[in-house]
Amino acid sequence: MIKIAPSILSADFTRLEEEVRSIERAGADLIHVDVMDGHFVPNITVGVPIVASLKRKTKLPLDVHLMIDNPERFITPFANAGADIITFHIEATSAPEEVLRKIGASRIRGGISLNPETTLTSVFPLLDSIDMVLIMSVNPGFAGQKFISNTIGRIKQLRQVLSEKKLNVDIEIDGGINQKNAKEVIAAGANILVAGTAIFGKAERKRAIELLRGG
Ligand code: DX5
Ligand code: ZN
């Protein structure tokens, strides 16, 4: 089953509750929260208080994407605030096992994200210990960028490795996903699609989500 995770980075933050209601009604499966620290990426977005506020307003799982240096420091606070899945970047820590231990201790799901330039093999030794791989299809930092086309080959390669190892790990794709390229991304083996602009930028959000899902 394909899951759609609207990224609230493209929502109107002055009306965040209404924006969340609108994507719930439109059939979203997860809420993707992009956390940026101004160090790991050249942008700053939201943090723990927003996750805690969202938790009080929605039953949808909160898919927290940490684009921050030294993510180990922030696993427990985000988990306590209500994150259901926490994804951190392999490039942002020298101790991914420690981050995964903290995620495990918080009894939530854990994912590892890879930047477009990062070799896929860097995640292979950790595939047994994670629930999801998030492959970035843009350089992280901003919504509204163009999908990097060699991502398709990376998705296929990872799906192949996961099938060989018989691992039930989600593949989430993030960045520049739209109603035109979603089909190819799904065919390559991704099962969770993040979209900011292609959902919040549309008036007909239900239709936007159906089209992303392949409807
Ligand atoms: C980029 C973020 C994405 C981004 C998606 O750094 O991780 O989640 O906001 O936005 P679109 O779909 O507009 O590329
Ligand atoms: Zn993201």
From TrEMBL:
<feature type="active site" description="Proton donor">
    <location>
        <position position="174"/>
    </location>
</feature>
<dbReference type="GO" id="GO:0046872">
    <property type="term" value="F:metal ion binding"/>
</dbReference>
<dbReference type="GO" id="GO:0004750">
    <property type="term" value="F:D-ribulose-phosphate 3-epimerase activity"/>
</dbReference>
<feature type="binding site">
    <location>
        <position position="7"/>
    </location>
    <ligand>
        <name>substrate</name>
    </ligand>
</feature>
<feature type="binding site">
    <location>
        <begin position="174"/>
        <end position="176"/>
    </location>
    <ligand>
        <name>substrate</name>
    </ligand>
</feature>
<dbReference type="InterPro" id="IPR000056">
    <property type="entry name" value="Ribul_P_3_epim-like"/>
</dbReference>
<comment type="function">
    <text>Catalyzes the reversible epimerization of D-ribulose 5-phosphate to D-xylulose 5-phosphate.</text>
</comment>
<feature type="binding site">
    <location>
        <begin position="196"/>
        <end position="197"/>
    </location>
    <ligand>
        <name>substrate</name>
    </ligand>
</feature>
<feature type="binding site">
    <location>
        <position position="174"/>
    </location>
    <ligand>
        <name>a divalent metal cation</name>
    </ligand>
</feature>
<keyword id="KW-0413">Isomerase</keyword>
<protein>
    <recommendedName>
        <fullName>Ribulose-phosphate 3-epimerase</fullName>
        <ecNumber>5.1.3.1</ecNumber>
    </recommendedName>
</protein>
<comment type="pathway">
    <text>Carbohydrate degradation.</text>
</comment>
<dbReference type="GO" id="GO:0019323">
    <property type="term" value="P:pentose catabolic process"/>
</dbReference>
<feature type="active site" description="Proton acceptor">
    <location>
        <position position="34"/>
    </location>
</feature>
<dbReference type="GO" id="GO:0005737">
    <property type="term" value="C:cytoplasm"/>
</dbReference>
<keyword id="KW-0479">Metal-binding</keyword>
<comment type="similarity">
    <text>Belongs to the ribulose-phosphate 3-epimerase family.</text>
</comment>
<feature type="binding site">
    <location>
        <position position="65"/>
    </location>
    <ligand>
        <name>substrate</name>
    </ligand>
</feature>
<feature type="binding site">
    <location>
        <begin position="141"/>
        <end position="144"/>
    </location>
    <ligand>
        <name>substrate</name>
    </ligand>
</feature>
<feature type="binding site">
    <location>
        <position position="32"/>
    </location>
    <ligand>
        <name>a divalent metal cation</name>
    </ligand>
</feature>
<feature type="binding site">
    <location>
        <position position="34"/>
    </location>
    <ligand>
        <name>a divalent metal cation</name>
    </ligand>
</feature>
<dbReference type="InterPro" id="IPR013785">
    <property type="entry name" value="Aldolase_TIM"/>
</dbReference>
<dbReference type="InterPro" id="IPR026019">
    <property type="entry name" value="Ribul_P_3_epim"/>
</dbReference>
<feature type="binding site">
    <location>
        <position position="176"/>
    </location>
    <ligand>
        <name>substrate</name>
    </ligand>
</feature>
<keyword id="KW-0862">Zinc</keyword>
<keyword id="KW-0119">Carbohydrate metabolism</keyword>
<dbReference type="Pfam" id="PF00834">
    <property type="entry name" value="Ribul_P_3_epim"/>
</dbReference>
<dbReference type="GO" id="GO:0006098">
    <property type="term" value="P:pentose-phosphate shunt"/>
</dbReference>
<feature type="binding site">
    <location>
        <position position="65"/>
    </location>
    <ligand>
        <name>a divalent metal cation</name>
    </ligand>
</feature>
<dbReference type="InterPro" id="IPR011060">
    <property type="entry name" value="RibuloseP-bd_barrel"/>
</dbReference>
<keyword id="KW-0170">Cobalt</keyword>
<keyword id="KW-0464">Manganese</keyword>
